[in-house]
């Protein structure tokens, strides 16, 4: 969507056995963490456009292309014309150089930060392009391996994002020529939050700071709308102490100690079986809670008992939070 962010970063490591598999994780709050078990010593955001910019990424514009320092141009290969967008990547000025035995691995990232308010309106969280993290409320992310460098490049290194659909293009050999990655990786749990001006890492404190409150629960009568023919539940919600870091997903089960599932999947299955209309599933799978809200949940005929939980994206507990 317009406003989404695409970025580039260097992974500093002695050696990566399989660099195609991203050696890092991305949390819902945009934190990128290198995998120390795979030999990653640190993550360094690229300076895009020029060596002093400290802009590691850019936003997607109305035309669906990265904007700003990313430049669109046309190319020919084997008499085939295609278009790409590219950016010059630099090692950021003033950043400590890697050790002699370490290499740099360049990656191109995209972040899916789509989320919905209780009315189902979908928007994205673009994020600051010079921040130490990626954007917040990441629901999924993608990464493409660009190349390996023995040390800091003397000049700029160019990363390409391709926006074409042609089966012949993958056979074209270009240095640093890559496809824009699809955001398919799940986010990792958030490891730290700021509470009363202090950064805390205790898992229980982090969970408590990310936990929204339930202020009310009321049952509504059936309406003549297609979405709530059997009535609904109005779930009153209050925002968590740590605002704007993650979105939430509604989970459900017919028994409290039974099997919990995302409500969007259950509702979609019931709707298909009974020919009901269901609103955008992002209302239940990527819910943004930044003020007092009321979430309306459809009830199903012949389904007398059901339990609900809100789960922060990236939660490691299947039963949710």
> Whole-number average pLDDT?
84
Overall, the morphology is elongated
Low-confidence stretches: 167-175, 317-321
Structural class: mainly beta
**What distance lies between the first and last C-alpha atoms, to the nearest angstrom?**
29 Å
Strand count, sense and closure of the main sheet? 6 strands, antiparallel
Order of helices and strands: EEEEEEEEEEEEEEEEEHEEEEHHEE
Tally of DSSP β-strands = 23
- Helix content class: under 10%
The Rg value, from CA coordinates, equals: 22 Å
Strand content: 35-45%
Total count of helical runs of at least 4 residues: 3
Please explain how this structure is put together:
By secondary structure, the protein is mainly beta. The chain has 3 helices and 23 strands. Strands 1, 4, 6, 9, 12 and 15 form a 6-stranded antiparallel beta sheet that branches. Strands 5, 7, 8, 13 and 14 form a 5-stranded mixed beta sheet that branches. A hairpin with a 2-residue loop joins strand 7 and strand 8. The longest helix is centred in the last third of the chain and has 12 residues. The protein starts with a strand and ends in a 9-residue tail after the last strand. The C terminus is likely disordered.
List keywords for this structure.
37% strand; mainly beta; elongated; six-stranded antiparallel sheet; 321 residues; five-stranded mixed sheet
SSE arrangement:
Elements: E1 5-13, E2 24-26, E3 32-34, E4 40-45, E5 47-48, E6 57-59, E7 71-77, E8 80-90, E9 103-112, E10 115-116, E11 122-123, E12 140-149, E13 157-162, E14 177-179, E15 185-186, E16 193-195, E17 198-200, H1 203-210, E18 213-220, E19 232-238, E20 248-253, E21 261-262, H2 263-274, H3 282-285, E22 293-298, E23 307-312
Parallel strand pairs: 13-14
Antiparallel strand pairs: 1-4, 1-6, 1-9, 2-3, 5-8, 7-8, 8-13, 9-12, 10-11, 12-15, 16-17, 18-19, 19-22, 20-21, 20-23
């Amino acid at each position: 969507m317009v406003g989404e962010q695409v970025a580039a970063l260097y992974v500093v490591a002695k050696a990566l056995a399989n660099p195609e598999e991203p050696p890092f994780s991305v949390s819902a709050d945009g934190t990128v963490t290198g995998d120390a078990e795979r030999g990653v010593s640190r993550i360094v955001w690229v300076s895009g456009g020029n060596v002093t910019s400290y802009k590691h990424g850019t936003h997607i514009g109305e035309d669906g292309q990265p904007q700003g320092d990313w430049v669109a141009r046309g190319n020919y290969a084997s008499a085939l014309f295609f278009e790409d967008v590219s950016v010059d990547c630099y090692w950021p000025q003033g950043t400590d150089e890697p050790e002699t035995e370490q290499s740099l691995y360049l990656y191109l990232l995209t972040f899916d930060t789509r989320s919905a308010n209780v009315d189902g309106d979908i928007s994205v969280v673009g994020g600051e392009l010079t921040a130490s993290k990626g954007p917040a409320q990441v629901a999924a992310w993608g990464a493409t391996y660009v190349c390996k460098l023995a040390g800091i490049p003397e000049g700029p290194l160019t990363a390409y994002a391709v926006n074409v659909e042609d089966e012949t293009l993958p056979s074209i050999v270009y240095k640093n020529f890559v496809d824009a990655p699809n955001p398919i990786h799940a986010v990792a749990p958030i490891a730290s939050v700021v509470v009363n001006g202090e950064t805390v890492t205790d898992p229980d404190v982090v969970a408590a700071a990310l936990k929204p409150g339930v202020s009310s629960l009321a049952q509504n009568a059936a309406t003549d709308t297609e979405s709530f023919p059997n009535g609904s539940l109005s779930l009153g919600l209050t925002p968590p102490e740590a605002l704007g870091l993650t979105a939430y997903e509604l989970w459900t089960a017919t028994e409290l100690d039974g099997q919990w599932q995302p409500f969007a999947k259950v509702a979609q299955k019931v709707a298909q079986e009974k020919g009901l209309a269901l609103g955008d599933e992002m209302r239940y799978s990527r819910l943004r809670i930044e003020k007092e809200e009321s979430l309306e949940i459809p009830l199903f005929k012949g389904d007398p008992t059901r339990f609900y939980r809100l789960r922060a994206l990236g939660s490691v507990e299947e039963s949710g939070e």
